[in-house]
């Protein structure tokens, strides 16, 4: 790859910090910048067919039509688009993404959203049903996550997703520390495997994120976390489990450290909140991670993942209402009237809250436990099958989010070969790896066998023809070899530009 030869080689011999400085200096030179931009265009163009496959098959709309199109015509196009995309997730080719996906569940959720399509929790006087749904979602989630055992009344709010839940929790700790301790330069301490939403929170709210290493088991390193805490630390973070490798951090030890240092502790259970309680009931050795631990002061739990709600809901929980109040926004002197908002958005889709409430009640404890049993059984079979492939290595000791790497093959080339067979897996880095988040879409008969057969084929192809796959493999390869992260950031920005091109 020209870009890699251009900069990865010489920059690879210096530290990442100096490499970033050197890259930013080099890209100011017009000849170098033109060459870099040309390479970016080539790399991004290789992804255009994947993200823009409909340009030749459907009309492109760059401005409003002079007269509105007929609804039957639009519905036909929408049905065609949905049909083309349905097979990938319906047949279990995706990692995560669609967590339930049965026809009757989708139909039920769609009916609920149709009934409450106009609801907006911002207007509680018009739609008190929306506040009923959200209050009960929070209460049920809190009870499931140890709230009944907490000394205080666990409270929370419904959000748009795990990222917003994490953003709001970090904003809450920032504001509490500023009000009660006078901290003006707040810091978050989190393991390197913590979700990138913590990076986003630090970026948006002008907080410092101090990242700690993980140990050989891929769990947060508690002694390193202890050393990282300063007088400006407002929150310590652990994951249950961490997104990259599906490994649960030592939440008990971390939360005890937070309690000892009188700072907040956040358990990010976006992935695990609706799996781990039922796995524990099924007899799996699940370490404590929720409000049963006195040091846990907040949690994030995604209802739209293994809670099987429609996409667009999550829950952020706090050990008590006083802490939750630091999340709110209020305005008492606006000419438009008295204003308050519990989350980042003002108007919110009440239909999604209704669908979440209905999903939780329709499944109940028995439904979630049965789904968890099926997922964990399937994940064990997949994990065992991967372990039997000599070139692959399972990372850590995961339950259902299974990460694997290789010491002898380019794992990103394996990912690309799997893509050719229809699979959509998640690429990881530091070190290069892939993961499959097992869902109910993987539990039907034959899906596990198909995945393992295709994985064995992909490994064989890469072994026989190394370096021949295209697609995302070169981009991940570049990210793994170039120390100047600004270069990778530039490339990602151009990829996002591509998504918004018509």
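^ structure tokens above, recovered residues below v
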């Amino acid at each position: 790859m020209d870009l890699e030869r251009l900069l990865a080689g010489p920059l690879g011999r210096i530290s990442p910090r100096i490499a970033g400085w050197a890259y930013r200096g080099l890209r100011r030179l017009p000849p170098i910048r033109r060459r870099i931009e040309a390479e970016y265009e080539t790399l991004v163009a290789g992804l255009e067919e994947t993200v823009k496959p409909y340009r030749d098959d459907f009309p492109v709309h760059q401005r409003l039509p002079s007269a509105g199109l007929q609804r039957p015509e639009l519905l036909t196009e929408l049905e065609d688009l949905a049909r083309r995309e349905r097979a990938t997730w319906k047949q279990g080719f995706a990692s995560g993404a669609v967590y339930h996906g049965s026809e009757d569940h989708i139909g039920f959720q769609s009916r609920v959203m149709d009934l409450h399509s106009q609801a907006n929790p911002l207007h509680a006087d018009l739609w008190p049903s929306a506040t009923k749904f959200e209050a009960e979602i929070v209460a049920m989630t809190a009870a499931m996550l140890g709230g009944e055992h907490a000394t205080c009344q666990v409270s929370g709010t419904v959000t748009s997703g795990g990222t917003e839940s994490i953003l709001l929790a970090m904003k809450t700790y920032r504001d509490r520390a500023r009000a009660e301790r006078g901290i003006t330069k707040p810091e978050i301490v989190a393991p390197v495997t913590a979700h990138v939403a913590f990076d986003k929170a630090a970026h948006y709210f002008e907080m410092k994120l101090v990242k700690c290493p993980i140990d050989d088991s891929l769990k947060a390193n508690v002694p390193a976390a202890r050393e990282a805490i300063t007088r400006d630390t407002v929150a310590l973070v652990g994951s249950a489990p961490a997104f990259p490798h599906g490994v649960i951090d030592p939440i008990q030890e971390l939360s005890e450290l937070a309690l000892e240092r009188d700072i907040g502790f956040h358990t990010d259970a976006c992935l695990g909140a609706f799996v781990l309680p039922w796995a524990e009931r099924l007899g799996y050795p699940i370490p404590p991670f929720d409000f049963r631990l006195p040091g846990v002061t907040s949690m994030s739990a995604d209802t739209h993942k293994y809670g099987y709600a429609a996409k667009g809901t999550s829950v952020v929980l706090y050990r008590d209402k006083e802490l939750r109040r630091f999340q709110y926004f209020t305005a008492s002197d606006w000419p438009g009237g008295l204003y308050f908002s519990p989350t980042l958005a003002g108007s919110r889709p009440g239909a999604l809250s209704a669908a979440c409430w209905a999903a939780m009640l329709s499944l109940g404890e028995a439904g979630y436990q049965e789904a968890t049993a099926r997922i964990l059984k399937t994940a064990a079979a997949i994990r065992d099958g991967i372990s039997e492939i000599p070139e692959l290595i399972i990372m850590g000791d995961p339950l259902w989010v299974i990460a694997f790497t290789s010491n002898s093959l380019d794992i990103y080339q394996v990912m690309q070969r799997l893509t050719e067979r229809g699979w959509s897996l998640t690429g990881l880095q530091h070190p290069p790896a892939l993961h499959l988040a097992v869902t109910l879409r993987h539990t039907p008969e034959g899906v596990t066998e198909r995945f393992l057969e295709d994985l064995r084929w992909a490994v064989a192809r890469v072994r026989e023809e190394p370096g021949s796959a295209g697609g995302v493999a070169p981009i991940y390869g570049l990210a793994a070899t170039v120390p100047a992260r600004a270069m990778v950031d530039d490339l990602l920005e151009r990829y996002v530009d591509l998504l918004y091109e018509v």
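Residues 2-56+476-499 form one domain.
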